[in-house]
Amino acid sequence: MYRRTLAVALALTLATPLAACGGKDDPAGSADAVSPTDPGAVSGEITVLTNRTDLVTDGTMQKYADQFKALYPKVTVKFEGVTDYEGEVKIRMNTENYGDVLLIPNTVVTEDYPKYFAPLGSAADLSAKYSFTDKAKVADKVYGVAGFAYVNGFVYNKDVWAQAGVTTWPTTPAEFITALQAIRSKTSATPYYTNYHDGWPLSSWSQVVGSVSCDPKANDKLVTTDPWADGADIATGDTLLFDIVKNKLSEADPTTTNWEDSKGQIATGKIATMWLGSWAIAQMQDAAKKAGKDPSVIGYMPFPKQVDGKFCSVVAPDYQYAINSHSKNKAAARAWFDWFIDKSDSAAVNQAISAVKGAPLPPAMQPFTAAGVRFIELSQAGAAKLTKIDNASEVGISKPEYRQKLVDTARGAAPGDAKSIFTDLGKRWTEAAKTLG
Amino acid sequence: MRTRLVPWLYLLPALALLIAFTYIPVGSMISYSFTDWDGLDPDPAFVGVDNYVQLFTRPELFTVFLVSGYYLLAAFVQTGLALYFAFILSFKLRLRNLFKGILFFPYLINGVAVSFVFLYFFRPGGTLDAVLALFGANPGKLWLGDPDLVNVSLSGVSVWRFLGLNFVLFLGAIQAVPPELHEAAELDGANRWHVFRHIVVPGIKPILSLSVILAVSGSLSVFEIPFVMTGGAGDSKTFVIQTVKLAFQFNKFGLASAAAVVLLLIVLLVTWVQRRLVPEERTDLT
Question: Which residue in B42, B166, B234 is closest to A408 by CB distance?
Answer without folding.
Answer: B234
